[in-house]
Design brief:
The complex is a heterodimer of chains A (about 500) and B (about 160). With about 500 residues, chain A is mainly alpha-helical. Chain A has 21 helices and 2 strands. Chain B is flat, with a radius of gyration of 24 Å. The chains are: A mainly alpha (about 500), B mainly alpha (about 160).
Chain lengths: ~500, ~160
Amino acid sequence: MDTFAALAHGMAVAVQPMNLLYALIGVFLGTAVGVLPGIGPALTVALLLPVTYKLDPGGSLIMFAGIYYGGMYGGSTTAILINTPGESASMATALEGNKMAKAGRGGPALATSAIGSFVAGTIATIGLAFLAPWLVDFAVRFGPEDYFALMCVAFVTVSATFGDSPIRGLTSLFIGLTLGLVGIDKLTGQARLAFGVPELLDGVEVTTLAVGLFAVGEALYVASRRHHTEEKLEPVRGSLWMTREDWKRSWKPWLRGTMFGFPIGALPAGGAEIPTFLSYSTEKRLTKHPEEFGKGAIEGVAGPEAANNASAAGTLVPLLTLGLPTSATAAMMLAGFQQYGLNPGPLLFAERPDLVWGLIASLFIANCMLLVLNLPLVGLWVRLLAIPQPWLYAGILVFATMGTIAAKPSVVELSMLAGFGVLGFLMRRFDFPIAPVVVGLILGPIAESQLRRALAISLGDPMALVQSPISATLLALALIALLAPFVLKGLGRFKATED
Amino acid sequence: MTSGDPAQPPRRVDRAGIVIAALLAGLAALLVFDARGLSSTAMYGMGPEAMPVVVASGLALLAIGNFIDALRGNLPARESADPVPVVLILIGLALLIAIIGFGGGFILATSALFVTTSAAFGRRAILVDSIIALVMSTLIYLAFDRLLTLSLPTGPLERLL
């Protein structure tokens, strides 16, 4: 089979000693940064981008694979031990995991999350390897209007459909789209929204935006409400290992979580929150120990963690095959590709199979390394968590600004970083989601150029957008996804008045 | 979603929400203003000015939506915030930018940020923190400069190394 040959080739790339070393460094750094409270996988990738500047594309993408999985694992460790999920996808884990840690069962909670992530990650990566070539075959037939329609679907689902408030989600998206307009228009060479500032001609740097919004914004937010929260680190007491009973209660949630996570992650809908919460509520329903839920049930950690990891691998499907990032983390991965002038998509599979399949193979390797590395090193990660808050956030800010200083040490760029930090702070304070801004910045310019290409081919006839069956279907889907939350909200109101 | 819940106390107009709506409307106006300066050279289809206008229309609609939300008091409840640490961190960032801008170098700039942030989070041992910051940023500088061969801005301290 084709996939096997390609994957074997990818393995051959990935097991070269240097690449193994890159993967190991990636996993280690990813976990170390991801474990810091308040730092999710997206920010982990953004913060560690500068470390990979000097590597060749292959090595750097392999390191990314490690950082990606390492950051995810680090995030769940934080969620379990101090109940501060770095991202909404770890919220379900924190729910039960922190209770387990409080009850002195932190070890088994960490173990089931690590092994569950490994199982889910491996199955989902196999899924990715088999689904990707098939989707690539399909995507080759996409015209520019189809790509534009696909991006509309992603815009809507990422911002409106699954958030708390479609209006606030769309507002975030449009802020991102506005930022995406800044700079020289690629087709005509005219500057937009640059206001005569030369640094703005290149457009807004994705890493500057992400680090500003996530790292600086988070630090400002936590500082502003320091008087509210008292974070408590739960020590890991007792055995690290899972008992036979724990295993028996964990393996089915792992598999079910994977079944939720991978397909939903692979859809261009984005977000790991839905599968993790689906998995959590399913495990709550199916468990034989319903009395333990809310007090530290191991199923409630095993399922959501597996779902989270599986959906992370799932989001790589649209990212690698269509160039479509559907989560903030995937958007950062895309930024990583773009720094080498690589554009993920069907073409990349054809032109640089070594790179794509090397990356996929590295996901397997990173997964195995995590399992081997993390359980024995859990003591080290716990010590990282115990860094006093003032030093922790001071260090995070130094690290965050360092990336920008290394890439573009200009006053304008650093001021933008600070400005985005303030924006991130205000968005957190007023409860606007942040991922849509990053997705809007990355996808906005791509969507615009696809749209303009489509209209140029059709000689300016906008009907071309709905004449292709693929794009007509996708645009209809986008419209439904846009209207659904408003309609459902209306229905909900009906119900409320009936009661 | 808490909308339509009759048990809630009567909601007040949210001033911050009005400001947000006004800012969005202002951003939309800025986009249109900027797009007017662009010349459309596209023979067929869209020129460079089309997309800003589309985005501006979206922003204008969202400004209205946010305005209605604010009038209804639909914004989620906010906890009180302490402005002092936020201002301290922003001072730290301003110091960092100024030091880099005037050629003070990486080590001094990041140390200033470290100390102010640490103070914002409640530490008062400025001398100890300064020493920690200087040692840490020197190590980072050396790691980047020697190991990754990435050039960071140099100032008086970096030239001594």
